[in-house]
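Hello forum,

I keep getting stuck at the same step: I have a sequence, I want structure tokens, and every attempt I make locally crashes halfway through. Rather than fight my setup again tonight, could one of you with a working pipeline run this one for me? It's a single chain of 426 residues.
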Amino acid sequence: MLLLHLSDIHFRKSEIGTAQDPNFHLRNELLRDVGQQRVKLGAVDAIIISGDIAFAAAPEEYEYATGWLTRLCDVAGCDMKSIFVVPGNHDVLRTYADQNLVQLLHNQIKNSQDPLDQISKQLTNRDEARLLYGGLDNYNQFAGQFFCNLLPPDRTRTSRDLTLNDGSILRLWGLNTALVSSSQDRQRDMFVDSASFQITREPGVTNLVMAHHHLTWLRQDRELEDHLNDVAPIQIFGHVHTNRIDLHRDHIRLTASATQPERGETAWEPGYNFIRVSVNGENTSRELRIKAHVRVWQTAPGGFIAKRDRGDSDTFELTIPLENWCAPTQPRPLTTVAHSSLASSMTDGATPSEEDQPALTTMRDVALRFYRLSFSKKSEIAGRLQLLESEDMSLPDHERFRQVIIRAHERGQLELLKHAVIESER
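Reply #2:
Ran it on my machine without issues. Output:
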């Protein structure tokens, strides 16, 4: 399993698509380097982005990001369905998050003796939850095309299953550390909600947890660190713009360089990563092998090069013993997926079953096409196929159209919806 990891891309509305874009050359070199590494490492299986896709959460920034990520997928040898994202602080619309009512909720969390309890109370109050998450609306529109959009109280994290070489599961978890982000952000004033502490160990499952803010920015740093060290052999963070690879007995913690850091930063070091994950052995002698290929920018001459570990190795490697697990001796019988089960998992943030994964792949394909249509075209198609319900009207746009796709699957109309979307693209 080969993952391509980016963080802190910071597409800035005032620069993208202009002759004054200072990062145009840098992005082009990154695409070239990914293409060259593909020849050496093989095609990428998934692209994971640990937040700050945009700079100011503007719709134009996400539109540009979608186009650029399409090109990245082309050179990496994967498709857009492989993308998995989490939000960062720059993905929060600050003019919204800085409003007095939103700041009141933020301060109640920051000043609480029990922040997790306070967060839970706010997320289960519909009006307060809407205020807390309203600043992520533009991000959620973007993330919705990958089925990574968030909606409290139940879907405040996102997950996806990938199949490793021995048939076991690499489970991606995306946490939202931008819950109380605004222009008032301070170190150790960021929070996660209780769902982040409900990641569990399961036989035949390896957890990879990705979040934007590094642990040092979280008030619950020690508590979350202890939990992740127990359940997640692979931990990935962004935000600090400085690359760090920490190899421990039971886990690797990778903190990313920014893809496009501010040029005024004292340690300006653009970068990105490839992460190879595989399982060696079987049954009672299984080992998880992780190889991180860290790519960093050098100047004069310019280009991406390998960051080297001691001993002059161009990879950072860790092998972790895994618990006993035996792959099924026979493939599981093909069964009809319970639509209600899949719909429930898509709504409450639970991980869909293995049998649901093909349906989810088709749904992501439809979501990618649906995302590119105008609001009026999406509404017309959903209305014509009778996939909108009265209760959808109170939902944010990104969630309303997510429900349209889920409902099409529930009613056996997914192919009909896909055909209608394709017709509208012409």
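Residues 332-341 have pLDDT under 50 and may be disordered. If your local run keeps crashing, start a new thread with the error log.
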